[in-house]
Amino acid sequence: MPEIKFLSNLADITGEKSLIIEYDGEVSGLIDSVDTKLKGKDFKTTITDDAGKVKDFVKILINGNDIRGTGGLSSPVKDDDEIVIFQTLAGG
């Protein structure tokens, strides 16, 4: 089962630092599954925009690779994958 790690404020939003979930499919479906599992935590609305795309300041890594370079929301998630989701910080 894939392990999902939540970093920075996503750990606060989800109330979890990590989550192991039974899932086999694409990142888009994984986001829906996690959102369902975390009922009422605003997970999906925090990381995706109104069109369902990952917000610019959110990074999703599968085994250390940013999904933006590996197929985006269509990237496959396999049983032994490690997924890390976090919001990038900017400032000056």
Automatic annotation (TrEMBL):
Source domain of life: Archaea
Protein name: MoaD family protein
Source species taxonomy: Archaea, Methanobacteriati, Methanobacteriota, Methanomada group, Methanobacteria
